[in-house]
User: What shape does this take?
Amino acid sequence: MRDIVVVGAGMAGLSAAETLRAEGYDGRLTLVGAERHLPYSRPPLSKHVLSGKEEPASTALRAEGHYDGLRLDLRIGRRATALDTTARTVTLDDAGKIHYDGLIIATGATPRRLPGTDHLAGVHVLRTLDDCGTLLTELTNGTPRVVVIGAGFIGSEVAASARSRGLDVTVVEAAETPLSRVLDPRIGAACAELHRDNGVGVHLGVGVTGLEGGPRVEAVRLADGTLIPADLVVIGVGVAPETAWLADSGLTIGDGIACDATCAAGPPGVYAAGDLASWPHPGFGRRLRLEHWTNAGEQAAAAARNLLAGPDAALPYAPVPYFWSDQYEVKIQLVGLAAPADTVAFVHGSPEERRFTAFIGHQGRLVGVLGMRSAAKVMRYRALVAEPTSWADALAAARG
Ligand SMILES: Cc1cc2nc3c(=O)[nH]c(=O)nc-3n(C[C@H](O)[C@H](O)[C@H](O)COP(=O)(O)OP(=O)(O)OC[C@H]3O[C@@H](n4cnc5c(N)ncnc54)[C@H](O)[C@@H]3O)c2cc1C
Assistant: This one.
């Protein structure tokens, strides 16, 4: 293999490139990234950068000199527009084509927007460093009234950061409890109360019907007729895997790129990793697509090793997933998996105390541990999720 191309210069793309070199790959290595920045860390954007604790530049993942050491053909500010798996080429937005023997696709995800709101100034999403810069400028310009649409993790972190600046903040969530797509309603309710504890207005179970104003946003209109004044609106209604450029590639795309257990995407030499890759997790026995920072790095490293090993020696990718969120000095962590219909047992603390460790069970097995302000306990129980452990044995371990 003499030509490997990595498309997407986020955490997954960087990890793939670093792993390839660490494993001894000595051929040409091209890293293509649509943003005009070298790889940086997204998690601090909604936490430390928006709250003013960290400078945007501190999010760089590596010092500039590091990239010389990787001997990369670095195409930063260049977008891949098409993939031809027969000719084995990636087409770029300058019409150039790059040949590959091996390809790792790591183009991440893109935030969803609200239809019909693009024309209004003061309406933002948060995914990139540039998004963060624009939002920061507006947050620090006077005392804007902020409305966050969507009480998912990123929306909630944005609300917490804006509130830490003393701003008037309101969160609107269409579901009856935050995070209802992934969590038990009691945990979601605790997340909603965390906002209220900190002086943030919360509207639950009511959708947004429109944004008022022009050219700048002035208010958010809810389905029950409520009009919330707003100088600044942040939309946090989730992301979609960034697969549009692969539409004619022949890859199987549903909820992201459908890979096999080794992260192979189908055509010879093509792998995918990070937010846009779904794969059947051999340990949990179900197909997953994770939007987790740790997974992006780990999955890309696994994909890179499997690409070098070849299909016959490739190993299944079977991590213990890990996710965290920081809101109002409170850390929420999840090891393993969680779904709204899973069984939940609060084994330490309670949602009312805003401090708890919850076991999450699926079909008689412990599949996840979720903690609020309980970092040490969550990490202690990680081994039970990895093992695997029956629901009864897990509860007995917690009692012991
Ligand atoms: C504000 C924020 C806070 C977060 N906080 C947490 C947290 O606390 N905990 C946690 O676990 N996770 C968190 N996440 C999620 C985590 O950042 C993602 O899971 C992770 O960034 C995914 O990495 P990735 O490399 O797969 O994708 P990305 O980080 O999206 O990187 C993909 C890169 O590919 C580029 N690209 C896209 N299309 C093309 C193309 N056609 N050609 C070339 N390049 C392209 C994109 O511009 C991007 O730079 C957060 C995310 C955000 C946005």
